[in-house]
Amino acid sequence: MKSRIEKPFWQTIGIGVLAGMRSASAPAITSYILSHHKTKALAKSGLSFMQTNVIANGLKYMAIAEFIGDKLPTAPDRVKPVSIVARCVSGALAGAGIFKASGGNARLGALIGASAAVASTYGSFFLRKATVKASGVIDPIIGALEDALVVGAGVGIAQLA
Question: Considering its fold, how many domains does the chain have in total?
Fold first, then answer.
């Protein structure tokens, strides 16, 4: 089946932004796209695992677990160094997969995905804190709205492929 990834730059930016909001969402969305639009460009690369249904399903369950874990009072802030690294790696993996699948340079995709993830990490963190403060709505509710935004945007990005 031919890959229909026609806008890898914008898909990578979008998925990178989602990585900054929910780190597990980016690989889950990317693997979903790649498992439904298999390409020979990934067949003999180190990213070929992202085209398998087993990986796509496993990553989906990890993303769901993150949605739940984010609401716990023990969840670390996304701007902690370890969290930033995880989001950066998540965006890089997703970007590399999207770019490679479309016949592009995986390193460039990784750089774009990671950059978008880091920018989104800080932007979404401060936006969430400001929203909680301004609205008086408790943080887990705002987090659930953020989850809905991530899911909706992820579905939209997946439909582009």
Answer: 1
